[in-house]
Amino acid sequence: MIASPLLMAVGMTLLRSFVIAAGACWLANQWLKSHREQTFFSKGVWWLFLLAPTLTPPLLIGYAYSNTQFSLVAHPWCNELLYSFLLLFRMMPLAWLVLFFSPAPPLGASGIYCQELLDGKRGGQEGDGNFQGRFRGRFRGCFRGCFRGGGWWTYGPGRAMVTAMALVFLLVFGEFEIASRLGASSWTVWVFDAQVGGLSWEATGWALILPVSCQWLVFGIAALSLAPTPGTTPGSTPGSIYSPRQGAIAVHGKGGAALWVLGKYLWLILAAVLVCVGPLALLSGSMVRGLSAVWADRLIMQEIGVSLLFACVAAAVVVAIISRFKAIRLGRMLLCLPGMTGSLVVGLMILSIFQTSFFVFLYDTPIPLLAALILMVLPVGMILRAVLASSGSAIYLAEQLSHSSKPAQQAHGRSLLWTLVHRPMGLIFCVLFYLAYIDLPASALLCPSGMSPAGVRLYNLMHYGRYDTLGAMTALTYACPWMIFLLVWLIARGRKVHD
Amino acid sequence: MKHHKHHPRKLLQRHLHNPPRGRSGLGVLWIIAFVALVALSLVWFGRSSSALVVYCSHDAIYSEKILQQFEQDTGIKVVIRFDTESTKSLGLTELLIREKEHPRCDVFWNNEILGTLDLAQQGLLEPYKGSGYDRIPDAFKDPQGQWVGFGARLRVWIINTQKMSATPEAVAQKLALPSLKHLTLAKPLYGTTRTHYTTLWHLWGKDKLIQWHRQWRQRGLIEAQSNGQTKNLVAHGHNDLGWTDTDDFFLAREAGQPVDMLPVRLDNNQTICIPNTVMIIKGTRKLAQAQKLVDYLTSEACELALSRSQAKQIPLGPVDESQLSDDVKQLKIWAKDGYPLGQLESVRQACLDWLKQEYLQ
Fold this sequence. Notes:
With about 500 residues, chain A is mainly α. Chain A has helices at about 5-35, 45-55, 60-65, 70, 75-100, 110-125, 130-150, 150-155, 160-175, 175-180, 185-195, 200-225, 250-285, 285-295, 300-320, 330-335, 345-355, 365-390, 390-400, 405-435, 440-445, 455-460, 470-499. Chain A has 23 helices and no strands. By secondary structure, chain B is α/β, with parallel strands linked by helices. Chain B folds into 2 domains: about 50-150 and about 275-330, 3-Layer(aba) Sandwich (D-Maltodextrin-Binding Protein, domain 2); about 155-265, D-Maltodextrin-Binding Protein, domain 2 (3-Layer(aba) Sandwich). Chain B contains 15 helices and 10 strands. In chain B, strands 1, 2, 3, 4, 5, 6, 7, 8, 9 and 10 form a 10-stranded mixed sheet that branches. In chain B, helix 3 links the parallel strand 1 (about 50-55) and strand 2. The longest helix of chain B is centred in the N-terminal third of the chain and has 21 residues, at about 25-45. Chains A and B meet through helix 1, helix 10, helix 11, helix 15 and helix 17 of A and helix 1, helix 2, helix 3, strand 2 and helix 4 of B.
């Protein structure tokens, strides 16, 4: 039987996830409409501001705001609002990215326009006559557009919206680290608390049925929205669902566009300050002073190295797996199901598997943690792969070009191949690498003795407040992957320029 | 005309249905993965197989130095697995229970006692009465030698001195107020607050504890996520007073926050003194090394080192008093009134079941 606090926690998480997913997608959609390549910021700064909140480790955010929670402890709804806004700030860029990078839908603007004309005509016919009839007709038209006029959702821009919403929903629904720090009501925190004094795997499994079903359902919807459309090959329509040059004025009018652009910059700055700069500033004050102590700390260096290795192997394996899949299909979806349950549950699941007599010889090895990390990042990899997949025909043509007898054409072909194939895969690898690197619950549960990832130790030390050495350790730990990304980016850029 | 299999259209169609793989940069990724895997394996194999595996739920910031000193003094390599706050309810005690069929831990340094009693009851501990065992008072060790306590902390009232004075009378006055919104304590599902509740259950009985608990909650008691948060709530002035441990209190005081403390006194005037406990896990293949570590941790030198740490832990055995700070000397006096926590075994599970029912069902 499902306990009532669990039911409430699941309900609360569902509601929060849905509201944040819808809000993030609506905002992202509005942003895209007013997006221009030429912005007030330079392109690099724009991307930095956009992605900073999403890429800030939840560990840092939760840690930074755990003190703020104190003043809200008597006002749980304010605490809930704080938590929800932090998540919205973190997730909105993800929705934007999905919409921005999604290939154009099979049903183009003219197709949708024709359908709207058709629907409008029907609505008008149904609405002929009195006011009630007109209202009913319009309502039906609207209803048909949203739910039955499947064209927009299944073949039009709605496909990408569904994907973005599903992705945000799943990430918010499975969030644990910030929720536990802020004391927010969430099913993940409930599962965590329920383990105290031991909880059998069976009991945990029963408790997980409802939330996991919700996750799988949403994932199923996302997978369906990403499934190839009959008569087309995956990603066969190049380009984004929105043209970056579309401009704001055409969509909002002059005044509206200006307001949107202003709001967008305010949001960007606010999100970056609240979610990224603030938490980092808390630690950075003492960072420089503690750096010498950290430099001499052999253990943290070793732990960072271990974290990098685990993340690298897990991300590479997942990229290798998803590169074989062009589209999400049922069998492939099944591979993603365990990972949808979140790091904590995956960690517990893998732990119990490797405690069975059949697998116990592998228990104190890196394999359980690797398996958990792979399972966890696989769904994200699948979705990113489906979203960023380039057209097979485009790749084919680029390859043909790269094999041309003319050097200029060869170079152009290689450049196209880089844009169509290598860059998206590299991007996916980096995202998965980072997600695996910052994982905490599964790493804490499954790391082999003497091979603890850095994040586990940091979280332990954060219990004792802020001090110089911890600030430096945290900065170093989270700077490492970025330094690697920067290095790789410079190499890739150099190679591109060379080509 | 019959289509040849190399006809361009056929090639293109085949290509579209079976997209290219080898050219997608996978080769590079496989190389990266292989190199990382080899490096990971080297690190794993590089760990000395003779190393003693120690699970340690005591704060890493203090325990790490002591275990490193043990390595230096004895030459025995130690591999440490620390507990994290994130896994406090999935902590090392639960992990040891999950691992009971195939243990990999040799020695467990637990920073509390309830989990230790659980492990002892489940028969997961190897009895050992070494040199350290003899110097620790009976109240803080298992008669069979399954575990032994050392370096303890006390449950205390942490009081914001800008809000109230740190006297028993002022505390009593605050508790007599109809609203308890100025009072905070950690959710008693885990940690030393659970030990506190279990002690109250043992002393008062089930009914009185449940009535008291519900009454306090109805009066608006603020429940924090941990003792650390309780400390912060009081130190930052959001609450006037709360329950926490001495180590948390000293952190706040060292940080210059306006706090003072009083020991939590039970109805019979006893205090709650929660020792660290150390035990050898049954099935260890490094019994001799494990015994050396147990002796080391329960030695006078180790207790003194713990008392000198920021957590100011209380030595339980006889030590050179001249080496103790005034704070620790005072704590040692209070600790002498400590409730016999070894007796909690009989009510430990019942209290936990009720707490889970109260908070999770």
